[in-house]
Amino acid sequence: MIIRNLECVKSVIKEYKFVFKMSRLKDNYNSKVKEKLMKDLKMANIFAVPKIKKAVINVGVGESIINKKAIEKVQEQIEQIAGQKSVVTLARKSVAAFKIRKGLPIGVKVTLRGERMYMFLDKLINIVIPRLRDFRGISPKSIDQHGNLNIGFTEQTIFPEIEYDKIDKIRGLEITIVTSAKDKEKGKKLFEMMGIPFTKTN
């Protein structure tokens, strides 16, 4: 499922640098998607049309309990992927069974908004997802009742910035795309028009 060919990765990075300069996803939303959504959803107010508010990248680092340097490694990789400084998440309460104490670093996250959010989503939609092997689309069940999309990936190496030979460990990550859609139907319509591929339901 994951691409590990170094030359292919370099090609992806070069392509992404070109895409990065264009910010075409934001332009597409403002010039085409917004107006079409307004018509399809039969909305009278353009300001009520669903939009993407933020994208959150989150990685759990349970091993930080025994390996304090793990958090630093994850921060470095997530910041490469997001192009923005990350934040360390702390345990909200103690869990004796897992030797977790309240306030202990257990994860890393980045919240993207505005231009950086659009550029990250452009990369995700047009470069990362199409290069997944045996990919048949994202399940519509990944959209919650508020119109937000949650996507889980098993490896950080799906992103072109990460070189497989230089990582310390394979780690999964979760991406949450938050919208103003309010419900699942409107959220799915927005994501489809933005180019996110879903599995077809019978």
Task: Please give the CATH architecture.
Answer: 2-Layer Sandwich
Are there runs of 5+ residues with pLDDT below 50, and where?
A: 18-22
Per DSSP E runs of 2 or more residues, the count of β-strands stands at: 5
Task: Please indicate the percent range of residues in DSSP E strands (runs of 2 or more).
Answer: 15-25%
For the CA atoms, what is the radius of gyration? Answer: 18 Å
Quaternary structure classification = single chain
> What is the average of the pLDDT values?
83
Would you give an account of this structure?
- The protein has one domain (6-194): 50s Ribosomal Protein L5, Chain: A.
- Mean pLDDT is 83; it is low at 18-22.
- It has 202 residues and is an alpha+beta fold.
- The protein is globular, with a radius of gyration of 18 Å.
- It starts with 5 loop residues before the first helix and ends in an 8-residue tail after the last helix.
- A 5-stranded antiparallel sheet has the order 2-3-1-5-4.
- α1 runs antiparallel to α4 (114-128) and α2 (24-40) crosses α5 (184-194).
- The chain has 5 helices and 5 strands; from the N terminus they run ααβαββαββα.
Topology, element by element:
Elements (H helix, E strand, L loop, with lengths): L5 H17 L1 H17 L11 E9 L8 H14 L4 E4 L14 E8 L1 H15 L20 E5 L19 E7 L4 H11 L8
Antiparallel strand pairs: 1-3, 1-5, 2-3, 4-5
Helix pairs in contact: 1-4, 2-5
